[in-house]
Amino acid sequence: MKFFIDTANLKDIQEAVELGVLDGVTTNPSLMAKEGIKGMDNIMAHYQQICELVDGDVSAEVIGTEYEDIIREGEMFADLHPNIVVKVPMTRDGVKAIKYFSEKGIKTNCTLIFSAGQALLAAKAGATYVSPFVGRLDDIGADGLQLIQQIVDIFSNYGYSTQVLAASVRHVPHLIQCAELGADVVTCPLSVITGLLYHPLTDKGLAQFLADHKKVNG
């Protein structure tokens, strides 16, 4: 499973890089705004900084919703750096744009996936990734993990190369369950990735080892 970090915060990205397990980054306009990044020139410069930090795919989300606007923004992002993946919404025009980008050799991430049918359409159009939102489905009483399982099974049935990128992953159990179900990628905050480090028995065992060492060595 690939680990992507879902943020535009350079400090968090750098920390994940230093941990040695980061495979990529996903962002969106909300995450950019959270970091105070405004204006297209500043946004482009920020994406450039992220790409310089990360040796892996970096999803840059388009703002436009009309086909021509998605194409214009997507090509601009793709020209910025080879690691850029154009993040496109699951809409009629978004699917058409994914087909266009696929034929041009531009990587895409179809976002806001909430059904297996949507994922299937994106895969048929040639999406590099589809991003089903686990946590947001759980928020409305649906089963986000069941959706991951459906998509993984469908893609396996027909040999689609599109990768299942589990998004809106909010805690360690989500991440582990997505791994069990065969998601290709998980994207989450840094806290979820570092949460994998900890277990109370590890802490207890280490404390005991150190205490025993001190007794023996003074």
From TrEMBL:
Reaction it catalyzes: D-sedoheptulose 7-phosphate + D-glyceraldehyde 3-phosphate = D-erythrose 4-phosphate + beta-D-fructose 6-phosphate
Primary residence: cytoplasm
CDD domains given in the database record: Transaldolase_FSA
GO molecular function per UniProt: aldehyde-lyase activity; transaldolase activity
Keywords recorded for this protein, A-Z: Cytoplasm, Pentose shunt, Schiff base, Transferase
EC number: 2.2.1.2
Active-site residues (renumbered): K87 (schiff-base intermediate with substrate)
Family under the similarity heading: Belongs to the transaldolase family. Type 3B subfamily.
HAMAP family listed in its UniProt record: Transaldolase_3b
Name this polypeptide is given: Probable transaldolase
Source organism of the structure: Hymenobacter crusticola
Organism ancestry: Bacteria, Pseudomonadati, Bacteroidota, Cytophagia, Cytophagales
Gene expressing this chain: tal
